[in-house]
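Action item from last meeting closed. Structure (172 res):
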């Protein structure tokens, strides 16, 4: 398995994660959004060179007033850069094997690079359902009380530090 940036050579029609909205977005919008610089999509390619999963990133901003006090403390009163993890999905047949974790790790690394180059402080997600909310919470994403969109946030520096700690622990 490998993760690579979406290209015109990838066949997307057969992808099925079990959520029609995520399947349809990949097949109908991912390539065009990438061409128009609206988002970047990365695909997990299986041993048969089929798309087995994907995630999509885009840049955004969040108002400091919309953040919980602990996340907004000490920040200037203007919009703060963030990377939106717009979508993340894995083929139904592969779920439960840790591949979603692999996609999330790659997404965090790409968000970290984007944040370094474009001054983004947070990674945000809009979970599609409660199962997705639990998945993101396991990575440290937190709800913001009173947020009508139910968006979850994670500081990029904290996410990268956790990944480094995990990698250091694996080497021992």
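Sequence:
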């Amino acid at each position: 398995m490998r993760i690579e940036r979406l290209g015109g050579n990838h066949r997307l029609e057969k992808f099925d994660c079990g959520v029609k909205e995520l399947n349809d977005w990949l097949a109908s919008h991912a390539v065009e959004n990438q061409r128009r610089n609206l988002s970047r999509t990365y695909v997990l390619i299986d041993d048969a060179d089929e798309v087995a999963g994907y995630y999509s990133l885009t840049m955004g901003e969040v108002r400091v007033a919309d953040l919980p006090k602990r996340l907004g403390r000490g920040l200037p009163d203007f919009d703060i850069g963030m990377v939106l993890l717009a979508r993340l999905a894995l083929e139904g047949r592969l779920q439960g094997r840790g591949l979603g974790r692999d996609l999330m790790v790659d997404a965090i690394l790409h968000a970290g690079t984007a944040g370094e180059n474009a001054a983004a402080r947070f990674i945000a997600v809009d979970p599609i359902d409660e199962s997705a909310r639990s998945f993101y919470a396991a990575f440290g994403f937190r709800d913001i009380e009173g947020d009508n969109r139910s968006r979850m946030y994670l500081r990029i520096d904290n996410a990268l530090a956790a990944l480094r700690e995990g990698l250091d622990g694996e080497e021992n």
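Note appended to the action item: Residues 2-171 form a domain with the Aminopeptidase fold (CATH 3.40.630.30).
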